[in-house]
Design a protein that fits this description.
Elements lengths: L7 H16 L14 E4 L2 E4 L1 E7 L2 H13 L16 E3 L6 E3 L3 E3 L4 E2 H4 L3 H4 L4
Helix pairs in contact: 1-2
Amino acid sequence: MKSIYKTEKDLLIEQMWEIVLDATKENGKLIDDAGCDWFTINNCTYIGSIEWLVSENIEVARLVNAINTLNGSNNLINKYNEIPIETATCKYCNKEMEATSLEYDNGNMCIPCYMKTDEYKKGIY
């Protein structure tokens, strides 16, 4: 049986939710999150999936992170696994890889291909 008394933690979470819900109203109405989890990625706040962006306010994201921390839902803080990884193809070896791996030749060459160049072998970089 749950106690009728609220702990300081419960009161803090309740206060933070009030602030978050007030800050994320849509057309003056509270958002109906349909019981979905609130999570953050890069200081943006989402509900349920990355398709439902609720706020780009860093203060809202910090409060949502604090609430999730207090609730033990650390997996909802900066949920990077929700972000699709952007891929690109190296123009030299035609391998598809993470776009950030194509650093050389104006973003067209992967690191292994760059290491095969005369420029790299001569130590000019």
